[in-house]
Write a structure and sequence with these properties.
alpha/beta, 5 helices, 7 strands, 36% helix, globular
């Protein structure tokens, strides 16, 4: 897939206020500081489409971007950011979970996980939630450029071992780097294939 156009559409505080669900859409979610904005910019080949920041927790709304006038890329707020109130965190979680569960045209969610770290509780909880609700998702390991090939392989194996305890069939996994654009073609190929299924309905 070639990205010809990528434009911001709107930010929404609630799934009910998102754009009309007539086009397929794909959400990106991950812990704060996982490199989500940088990866979105790499995928869309647009340096400033998603706002990157040295301050985690910057994304606070459901952000829709229209790609090629045909599908939506959705930037969801990062989770696990400690420097917010419990009330705000609870509101964010409800907004995100409602969107993920209720949004009828959401075709797949890319769950971003920092490849440098062992499985974190919040990541495991999110994966378990997707599994229990039978929602489609793909794990995207970020920042692969920060690790040697051996360390990256070891880190991925730790995740596979964990997932094998919970899943009969492992979910799809993509290794990525926003700097090297590693995994970008694979992500876009996944979206392109699903778009064709959406169009065939």
């Amino acid at each position: 897939m070639i990205i010809k156009t990528a434009k911001f559409v709107k930010s929404s505080p609630d799934f009910r206020k998102c754009p009309d669900p007539r086009k397929p859409e794909y959400a990106f979610i991950g812990r704060s500081n996982v490199g989500k904005s940088s990866l979105i910019n790499a995928i869309t080949n647009h340096k400033k489409l998603a706002k990157t920041s040295g301050t985690p927790g910057k994304t606070q709304l459901i952000n829709h971007f229209e790609i090629n006038d045909w599908w939506y890329l959705v930037d969801l707020p990062g989770y696990g950011f400690a420097k917010i109130s419990k009330v705000m965190r609870a509101n964010w979680e409800k907004m995100i979970m409602d969107y993920l569960y209720q949004r009828t045209n959401l075709m797949n969610t890319f769950i971003l996980i920092d490849s440098r770290h062992e499985p974190q509780k919040l990541d495991k909880d999110l994966l378990d939630w997707f599994g229990s609700n039978q929602l489609p998702f793909t794990i995207v390991f970020t920042k692969a450029d920060k690790l040697t090939k051996k360390r990256l392989g070891d880190s991925l194996q730790v995740y596979r071992n964990y997932l094998k305890q919970q899943w009969e069939t492992l979910p799809p996994m993509i290794v990525s780097s926003a700097i090297d654009k590693l995994g970008v073609e694979e992500i876009l190929a996944t979206i392109d294939k699903t778009n064709m299924l959406f169009q065939a309905k």
